[in-house]
Design brief:
With 181 residues, this protein is mainly α. The protein contains 7 helices and no strands.
Length: 181
């Protein structure tokens, strides 16, 4: 099964999805139709048909969660430490920071250094997505930037140099054809 976010479901989301399937089982047993179940549970008809077929073959046990596709290699304590180290930045871990941020390869190396656990680059991507991290490009701003000066300029200087707004004015009289009235 594919998921839009590309990283699969978290354990809490897996539990929620399993509860949804087991709720569908109750409705199968009461004789509810596919379209009705899909509307009430806010899922697609196709999902309900697939669940019904599995239920007919193996009962409610067939719709129980099979668990995660792969077991995460990092424990929750290791993940917390990794997240803390990621927030410190790449410079703190000896990376030349010409990119001004983390790359998947750098995170993979950091995991190896900290925990002696091997991940693939794709595995690192899935791990980060599963925990709510996303691919972002850092904003490049000059060191001399002063937010206070910018706010003063916006409030005082810009209104004076900004051209006045143009209002809409009709350019000709209504164009009606002679004799069309």
């Amino acid at each position: 099964m594919r998921y839009a976010q590309g990283g699969g479901l978290t354990p809490a989301e897996q539990d929620k999805r399993e509860a949804l399937r087991l709720e569908a089982v109750k409705r199968f047993e009461s004789g509810a139709g596919t379209a009705q179940i899909a509307a009430e549970l806010r899922v697609t008809d196709r999902s309900v048909r697939r669940w019904r077929a599995a239920w007919r073959r193996g009962g409610a046990a067939a719709l129980a969660s099979a668990g995660p596709m792969s077991v995460e290699k990092l424990t929750s304590q290791q993940w917390q430490r990794l997240e803390m180290e990621l927030k410190r930045g790449p410079l703190a871990h000896g990376f030349d920071d010409e990119h001004q941020g983390w790359t998947l390869k750098r995170v993979k190396l950091l995991i190896g250094r900290l925990f002696h656990i091997g991940y693939t680059v794709q595995g690192v991507w899935r791990l980060l997505r599963r925990h709510g991290w996303s691919c972002q490009v850092p904003l490049r701003r000059s060191l001399e930037r002063s937010e206070e000066v910018i706010e003063v300029w916006k409030a005082e200087v810009w209104p004076r140099v900004k051209p006045p707004p143009h209002t809409w004015v009709p350019t000709s009289v209504s164009r009606t054809r002679p004799g069309s009235r």
